Amino acid sequence: MKKRPFLAWFVSPSALIAFGIAASFLAIAQYSLRAHVPGALEPGGFTLDNFTTLWKAVYGRAFLNTVLLCFWTALFTLLIGYPLAYAMVRHPSARLRSALLLVSLTPLFLGEIVRTYSWIIVLGNRGFVNGMLMEIGLIDRPIDFMFTLGGVVIALVHFTLPIVVVMLAAALAHIDRNLEHAATSLGAGRVRVFFTVTLPLSIPGIVAATSTAFAWTFSAFATPQMIGGGQVQTISTLVYQVGFASFNFPLAASLSLVGLAFTVAVLALFNLGIRSLEKIGSH
C-alpha cells in the first residue's frame, strides 16, 4: 500500500479535539463524584450525595423550565421556519429567495450577547413593543416580557431560527418535484399536493431540525440568564449559579452530567422518530 502521510494532517486535529473533549468529560465526571467542602475550591472525598441532591424541588423546576423552553422554541421555530424555507426553495423569484436567505441568516452574523441585548431593548417595559402597543392604544400598561418564560422563548426563537431554516430548506430542496407534478396530473390541487406529498417527504427534515433546535436551546445560557434575569431558572443558568456563585463545583458537575444524559435521551427518542417517519415518507 502507498503511504499517505497527508492523512495525518487531517486526522491529528480531530484526534486532539477528541482527546480534549474526553479529558474534559472525565474531569467533570470525577468532580461530580466528589464532596463539596464549603470555603474550599478543592473537592473532598468520593460521594453520591451530589446526585441525590438533584431531587430537590429547585432542580426539578429548572429541568421543567428547560424542557418547556426547548419545546416551545422548537415548535415556534418550526412554525416560522417552514414557510420561510419553503419560500426560499420554491419561490420563482431569485431575488426574493436571496432576500429570504439573507434575512434568515443575518442573526448568525451577530454575537449571542449582542442579540440578547437587542431583545432587552425591544421587550423592555419601555421598549419598542410596549411603546408601539401603548402608542396605538391596544394596552394601557406595559406587558411584562422581561423576566418571563415567554420573553425568553421569543429571544431563543430568534437565536435558533437560522439553523432550522437552513435544515428545512435542505430537506425541501431534495424532494423530487416530479412526484408533485405526478400528483397534480392526477387531479390533486396545490393544498392536497402539499399535505399528501411535500409535507410527508419533508418529515425527516422537520424531525432533524426540531431535534437540533431542542438540543441547541437546552444548552443556551446567555439568553435565559439575561432575558430571564434569574427568574427563569434553566439547567445552564443553575450550573453557572451553583458553580460560580456558590463555588460548589461537584454539584455543578453532577447537574451538567444529568443535563447531558437527558439531552442524549431526548435525541435518541428523536432518532427513533426519524426512522419511523422516514418509513412513512418513503411510502
Describe this structure in words.
This protein has 13 helices and no strands. The protein is globular. 75% of the residues lie in helices and 0% in strands. The protein is mostly helical. The chain has helices at residues 6-32, 49-53, 57-90, 94-105, 112-123, 128-135, 149-173, 177-185, 190-201, 203-218, 222-228, 235-245, 249-282.
Can you give keywords for this protein?
283 residues, mainly alpha, 0% strand, globular
In short:
The protein has 283 residues and is mainly α. It is 75% helix and 0% strand.
The low-confidence runs, each spanning 5 or more residues with pLDDT under 50, are none
Largest pleated sheet: none
Radius of gyration: 23 Å
Task: Count every beta strand, where a strand is a DSSP E run of 2 or more residues.
Answer: 0
Give the overall pLDDT as a whole number: 83
Helix content: over 70%
Furnish the topology, listing elements before pairings.
Blueprint (H helix, E strand, L loop, with lengths): L5 H27 L16 H5 L3 H34 L3 H12 L6 H12 L4 H8 L13 H25 L3 H9 L4 H12 L1 H16 L3 H7 L6 H11 L3 H34 L1
Helix pairs in contact: 1-13, 3-4, 3-7, 3-10, 5-11, 7-10, 7-11, 8-9, 10-13, 12-13
